[in-house]
Specification:
The structure is a single chain. With 107 residues, the protein is mainly alpha-helical. 74% of the residues lie in helices and 0% in strands. Helix 3 runs antiparallel to helix 4 and helix 4 runs antiparallel to helix 5. The protein is globular, with a radius of gyration of 14 Å. The two termini are 26 Å apart. The mean pLDDT is 81.
Length: 107
């Protein structure tokens, strides 16, 4: 629901949905779920044009996900961090594993 709202540019709804997701995940106390939460919030912020916030959340997300790396690189570029963007986009493009995430990263 959060990504759909973000794609429709309904940022308040999107961010409320991410907080609902976070409350569900906190009960699990699993570090992977927190990475997933940060990846989601990064994507929502990316979709609504809040690139600085996206970068901060992408930094805390799964760094072994080429889809996340790709969007993190794009967000870094948008905030003017060209070298970091290049590194992240290169890592995503050179990902050497067939996966669902790689297929959708656009690399």
């Amino acid at each position: 629901k959060a990504r759909i709202a973000a794609k429709r540019q309904v940022s308040k709804t999107a961010l409320v949905q991410t907080e609902k997701y976070k409350s569900l995940l906190e009960a699990r106390k699993d570090p992977n779920t927190i990475e997933n939460y940060n990846g989601l919030v990064g994507m929502v912020n990316f979709d609504i044009g809040e690139y600085g916030q996206a970068v901060e959340h992408f930094k805390l997300s799964n760094q072994e996900n080429p889809y996340t790396l790709y969007h993190h690189g794009l967000a870094q570029s948008e905030v003017g961090n060209k070298e970091s963007a290049k590194d992240l986009l290169t890592k995503a493009a050179n990902w050497n594993e067939d996966s669902y995430n790689f297929a959708f990263s656009g690399c």
